[in-house]
Amino acid sequence: APCFPIPTQTLYSVEYPGRVLDGNRALDTLGGPVALAQVGAVSGESGMVDLRYRPKDLFSRPIQGRFVDTSNILLRVTRRPARTDRMDEEVDSATSSSDWDFEAVGVIRKTCRFRALADFQYLPEKENPYHKLGKAISAVDVDALTKFRLDQVDEKSNVPPPAFSRNYLPLDYRYLPNPLAKRTITREEGKPSKVEFELKPRLKPNRTPQFVVDFGDPIPKGPSEMAVKCIKDVLSSDVEKVRECFQERPIWTRLALEGTIALKNPYDLYRTILPALAYNCQNGPWRDCWIRFGYDPLKEPSSRAYQVVEVRVKGNNHAGPRAKIVLPGAHVFNGRPTVARNVLFQLCDIHEARVRRVIDLPALPRIVCDVSVLPPFPL
To answer: Which has fewest Cβ within 10 Å: 3, 74, 108, 195?
Structure first.
């Protein structure tokens, strides 16, 4: 393949948003070649170019452009018209490659592009006093400035604002129809087509409504009708596994359930199964625990073993990948470092010998549960 030399001359280019008939006038709208070269030499946010289609009008709102780094080559293409001796002979010079000359002029390192929206333009009348005042200030016309009087200005005239809009980028609206609207077209012979829109039923919620209570509030006796209806769509084997767990142990954390049983569809545990079998306590000794419907832990001394203890571990400088599944036995504390930085352990799941000696002391339980079953000292 033939090789062509490329000059080392560095050039700037401008993607002008308009039809250019006069290059000098186009440069004037950009502030002139000197100002354009100075802005092009600056990189970053400060390398902005203002395009004014009316450079001499003070009320002309500019369109902002920005220089970006490019690696383009500027080519000079010259076409030589074919010569013919006969006037009636038709020669298609465009099909002949020898009639075209290509020459590399230089490398375009930066290109000015205009991607911002143009602001609204306000053109005041030429006889407007503010228009004359702006021209006098721009031209430093002392005589016109001294002759200007505020009483000459009509009270009904409006002062043009410096800017109308602050949005320089178009919004990604996409102009899509309402997803809940169903479009139907009815066609009948001899009549124009009829377009109708009908609202679809709303999508089902991703989660079943659940009961969430505070410490000391009355406990719910059973699930809601929506929870009973939604649990029918879940595998019966998964429901029976969770139901057996609540029969053996009335209070569970979500981590303890996920580490004890294996469901075919784990996503149904929190969204459908638990709201139909238990209620959630959001504070107190059983914070973030799921309690079986009808079971009041305040009236059962044995519920002391199910209260939670929060374990917080100081994080490392380098965070590892987040675990996607819960390993079996992750809810049991045996004195080893935990996987997560913040974990809730139930007292019945703590197997560390030194901590168990404090938990199993016979004189610790209270008669009335007001804040916590154990005394307020750290384990």
So the answer is: 3
